[in-house]
Amino acid sequence: MGMAMPDPAPLVTRFAPSPNGRLHLGHALSAIVAHDLAKGAEGNGGGRFLLRIEDIDGPRSRPELADEFRRDLAWLGLDWEEVPAQSTRLASYAAAAEALKARGLLYPCTCTRKQIEEAGAQEGSDGLIYPGTCKRTPPDPALPAAWRLDAAKALAETGPLVWDDALAGPQAVDLSGLGDVVLVRKDLPASYHLAVTLDDAADGVTLVTRGADLFAASHVHRTLQALLGLPVPRWHHHPLLVDETGQKLAKRRGSPALAERRAAGEDGRMLAEQLRLRLLRLGT
Length: 284
Ligand SMILES: [Zn+2]
Prior knowledge:
By secondary structure, the protein is of the alpha/beta class. Helices cover 36% and strands 15% of the residues.
């Protein structure tokens, strides 16, 4: 009794793989970071570690891989709570997109990647920056269109924003490196940016963990949280595993999938311990 502090809100993290390819070491690292942050690496035994299957990538999605992912995570010695897969949430994506459209914050874009390249698009922090072709000249409404966030209008609504990364510290939102990103794909009711922002809010995620290659995307996600009135989590972008030549391990050819290592009889818990040691050396 006495002067006890109120319980802090429980830490909620998640691992959100897409079943369009097998999991590799880089995925294992991401899962371990999220799991350990939630489960007591910092004494927060009340934290929750969620698994969400991001299975809306149309023809590339192979639903049977979700079971393989669960076996991989168990093999690594992780335990988790599973939340509904993205394919069950399409209505919420469509509703949010319609709300943003009604406020004039999205515009349709029919450009192909080739057209964007030919329009002289600059390389940004996450691929080409859209040169605004369809913003200046609205496209034929009969053509299939993606919907892009009008970054200038969004900024005018939100004003200056900040977000907080556990490793890199406070960040002022700056959309200039990304431009007008796609929020609704031509073939899907959402892009990664819209779906993951809505899902993390719906799942009560309080600490978004993922690889440093997605650092810039958080400027977009923080903007969407402000536009849609969603709670604002913290972020933890962890360093990526690289090989001796500095190449991202996830991309290296010939790196066996976790499922192959598992089938070959490797000890997954020992592999997880090795990855934790590498993380320490990477300075997280
Ligand atoms: Zn366009």
